[in-house]
Amino acid sequence: MTAVPDSLGLVGFDEVLERYDPAFGLEVHVELNTNTKMFCGCPATFGGEPNSQVCPTCLGLPGSMPVVNAKAVESAIRIGLALNGSIAEWCRFARKNYFYPDMPKNFQTSQYDEPIVYDGYLDVEVEGEIFRVDIERAHMEEDTGKTTHIGGATGRIHGADYSLVDYNRAGIPLIEIVTRPILGTGAKAPLVAKAYVAALREILLGLGVSDVRMDQGSMRCDVNLSLSPKGSGTLGTRTETKNVNSLRSVERAVRFEMSRHAGILDAGEAIFQETRHFHEDTGTTSAGRAKSDADDYRYFPEPDLVPVAPSREWVEELRASLPERTADKRARLQVEWGYSELEMRDVWAAGALSLIEATVAEGTSPQAARKWWMAELSRSANDRGVELAEVGVTPAQVAEVQKLVDGGSLTDKLARQVFEGLLAGEGTVAEIIDARGLAVVSDDGALGSAVDEAIAAQPAVAEKIRGGNQAAAGALIGAVMKATGGKADAKRVRELILEKLA
Amino acid sequence: MSELILKTAAELADSLAAGETTSVELTQVHLDRIAAVDGDVHAFLHIDAEGALSQAAASDARRANGDALHALDGVPIAVKDVLTTIGLPTTCGSKMLEGWVPPYDATVVKKIKDAGLPILGKTNMDEFAMGSSTEHSAYGPTKNPWKLDRIPGGSGGGSAAAVAAFEAPLALGTDTGGSIRQPGAVTGTVGVKPTYGSVSRYGLVALANSLDQVGPVTRTVLDSALLHELIGGHDPLDSTSTTTPVTGLVDAARAGATGDLKGVKVGVIKELAGEGWAPDVMRKFNESVDILTKLGADVVEVSTPSFQHAMAAYYLILPAECSSNLAKFDAMRYGLRVTPDGDPSAEDVMKASRDAGFGDEVKRRIILGTYALSSGYYDAYYGQAQKIRTLIIEDFKKAFEQVDVLVSPTSPSTAFPLGAKLDDPLAMYMQDLATIPANLAGTPGISIPAGVSDVDGLPVGVQLLAPVLEDARLYRVGAALEGAIGPVLSIDKLEVAR
Question: Which residue of A has its CA nearest to B82?
């Protein structure tokens, strides 16, 4: 193979767009949250002791045979319907043949030219503009085992001293959702890519078919990108960046590859079709395996399985039971919650819709829920480069804190400190309040002297209140709050001031 | 030698029911027979005397309580080494799996255990069931009990030889292109390939998943029917398993034994005769056809023109499937592991292990199959082969519009000498000319002894074929023919000692 120029300098993003049109496509793997694996009865749960959730079938022992998980087929159909796709009347599984130590059979049971879902789409919004992402197909397959390479510098197989394989993951049902090349997004390409994955995740959460935890690998993205000369209307040679595992990384991977491709093309060199690794720390990619015609998976229909032929009645039943469409839901919630268009757009873009919905369901007001998720928690998520859903605070905890605020035992200021503690992993809400001493002081003895001091320090204000100007109490309340380090129950302080100055 | 070993499984079942013998006695006399002759025959790869006797004792205890599980409870059986057995090695005749002991039973093994049949041991076979002579076993060939310098057929030569040599009254075989029927023909035994999907394949180490089928190997048609009914039926662990109950086979065999075939239409397959078919085999075959006529059957000639392409299609589909099936043997989780010198990678270990673990015939088919599935060749090879398969299914359909069963010789020749075709794969493949179409179409077939050759005195087999799920027809016609032909196999005709 010819030497591949990995990078010939990066071209600034705006400059890329002067000369090139980007096209990108996304392949998203979603682990389904079925009770059992795709082709056997082993538990499909995450986190078991290595190699404790295995049987002859998912270990690929000689003589074992697969049986299709009906629940996984149902999930695939529901996903297809939610993505506006057609459901195949008849489709088969196929063997994708290649050797790798974490592949028990050295073929992956997947679908090839007969996917269960085809021709769908998803409309995504970026800065108020709608982009339609065409979905070519969604197909069912099984996950491989998980290999951990021990020793060596890179954590990859080359240079490792030895490798450990956990087959618990082997056979977990996967749905792979593949878009067509997405054209015409120009400068918004990175954002559209991110918005698509976010929208897809939201739909999958709504369907309840997957945990969609990008940090745990239950949702994994491969980003294909190519550039073509501006206005040419052609498709350039693409690279496939594997395992881009956060929304932010999807955006960064598209952005980086655009800059890298442009550097190579500007130098008159050709892009080689290859897979690339994404590096979360630097936001860059590096060369992986060359992908060429040499990759021959020798697909053929899996002879141990019969075709999947979902009846139209069943498909229509599943269609009728689909949850509300995301766009409809968004519009409905905006009205119910009384958010402005702009507020709702921000909530959506932050991936906070489901989180706020869950928080509201726990009894929190929509305004309070939005306040916490969009301010404290979004900021922390951004700072740490993680998704809001993975920030470490749950809707139930937000609701618990707000309930304490509503009940007067926490102030907003104290609540912020509780969130700090939650984000730092200091324990439960109660533990943090206890450990940090954040309970509001409402004991009249302790407050009484602080109130007396405030009155003594500001006689003019006290006089105004005595004269019937109750609004002036705010200045004294502020002084008491300051004196008590914000822990005073403001409502009780006000009552005490008014009593004393009656 | 105990005279008990000469009895059929049905007779042994009757003796057990009448209290004339015990399972322990039956099991012991067969173990004695194995000890006496298997050094010459080499039908077994593993003998489980202890396990078989303990299962036999349990069977006797049940029977004493009036709790027999099945008519065959207590009748010992041999199992082809391609079926997984808890606690017993399962090598598939390959070095690759030497010493591997499966943690689970094949469904058919579970069924025979649940019915109380003691398992005598595991029988020899061509490596991963690839061959027609058992010479491709990594553990040495099985000999034909009729004449020890002859092949016993393959791949299931071990099961057929064990039954022919009276080492076991019953055996399980598997048939992908004739591996039950052709050994049956050359050893003078009865072998049945059931309708595809009517017997579970779970725990059968796949050769070619779309062709493989487990079936009985016995000395009489009735014994096959008894065993076939026992192992048949739906299995939720095998997605290709049919839901139609497997019943009526024993009744059909008993009905056929009356010798009346009036109203039965039999079609002689025009394409399975002529050039390539040994004259002595054809003479025996024609005698069988005459007998069918005498029994009242209406015999006509039918044409199945696509059968001439069956061999070509088979040797694309089979290697394609097996090249993928055998990929799992990578030395990572079980089986042979060869670690090359130096600092080998996982890939180096896989290569070295596969090179050392697989024999030449296996490698030949892996290469063929890998090529046939390759990008750019798929349509021309695998795709075309599937089209031929469809044509063959249509040929069967048309033929069965005219007749109830089809008939042909099972194998083009009697047992050939060991080594005679080892260097000529194509000549070896031709052994399965008549048996392959049934595997491609999923239809059932039986081979029963037609008599012995007037040239070499070795047995000749006649094959009956029926439509999918009409296995009962094989038993009715087969039992009638068997009765009219009379016993072919007898211990005195064998070269192995009495």
Answer: A63
Residue by residue, what is the 3-state secondary structure of B85-100?
ECCECCCCCCHHHCCC
Residue among A277, A226, A291, A262 at smallest CA distance from A1 = A291
A466 half-sphere exposure, CB direction, 13 A CA radius: 9
Nearest-by-Cβ selection for B328 from A106, A157, A298 = A106
Question: In this structure, is residue B281 part of a structural domain?
Answer: no
pLDDT tens across A123-163, in order?
A: 998 988 999 999 999 999 999 999 888 887 666 666 778 88
Examine residue B291 and state whether it is found in any structural domain, yes or no. no
Q: What angle do CA B70, B75, B76 make, to 5 degrees?
A: 130
Q: Which residues contact A190 (CB under 8 A, 6 or more apart)?
A: A250, A251, A252, A254, A255, A258
Q: Is B374 designated active site? A: no
The DSSP H or E segment spanning A176 is strand A173-179
Q: Which amino acid is at B6?
A: L
ipTM, 2 dp: 0.95
Name every residue whose Cβ is closer than 8 Å to that of residue B381 and which is 6 or more positions away in sequence: B316, B320, B371, B372, B373
Cβ–Cβ < 8 Å for A72, A81: no
Q: Catalytic one among B23, B179, B198, B411?
A: B179
Check whether domain A444-500 has CATH 3.40.960, yes or no: no
Question: Each residue of A41-58: pLDDT tens digit?
Answer: 999 988 899 999 999 999
Q: Which residues contact B206 (CB under 8 A, 6 or more apart)?
A: A63, A304, B212, B321, B322, B325
Residue B89 covered by a domain: yes
Between vectors from CA B286 to CA B284 and to CA B290, what angle results, nearest 5°? 115
Exactly one of B132, B155, B323, B353 is catalytic; name it: B155
Looking from the CA of A311 toward its CB, the CA atoms found within 13 Å total 3
Helix (H) or strand (E) holding A222: strand A219-229
pLDDT value of residue A294: 54
Q: How far apart are CA A121 and CA A131, in angstroms?
A: 10
Instruction: State the span(s) of chain A assigned CATH 1.10.10.
Output: 444-500
Question: What is the spatial order of strands in the sheet that A107-110 belongs to?
Answer: A107-110, A94-97, A300-301
Helix ranges restricted to H, A68-188: 70-82
Domain-located, residue B38: yes
Q: The domain containing residue B63 runs over which residues?
A: 3-271+406-493
Q: What is the CATH number of the domain that holds B473?
A: 3.90.1300.10
Highest mean pLDDT among A177-181, A231-235, A321-325: A177-181
Cβ of residue B239 closer than 8 Å to a chain A Cβ: yes
Tokens standing for residue B10: 């049905």
Task: Say how many domains are in chain B.
Answer: 1
Report the predicted TM-score, pTM, of the whole model to 2 decimal places.
0.87
C-alpha span between B307 and B273 (Å, rounded) = 12
Angle between helices A412-423 and A429-436 (to 10 degrees): 110
A465-469, B34-38, B84-88: lowest mean pLDDT where? A465-469
Mean of all residue pLDDT scores within chain A: 90
DSSP structural state of residue B379: I
Query: Would you tell me how many other CB atoms lie within 10 Å of the CB of residue A384?
Result: 12
- List, as one string, the DSSP characters of A429-470: HHHHHHHHT---B--HHHHHHHHHHHHHH-HHHHHHHHTT-G
CB-based contact (8 Å) between B382 and chain A? yes
Are B320 and A300 a contacting pair at CB < 8 A? yes
Give the 3-state secondary structure of residue B123: strand
Q: Can you tell me the distance from the alpha carbon of B201 to that of B109, in angstroms, rounded to the nearest whole number?
A: 11
Contact between residue B12 and residue B227 where contact means Cβ atoms under 8 Å apart:
no
Total residue count of chain A as it appears in this document: 502
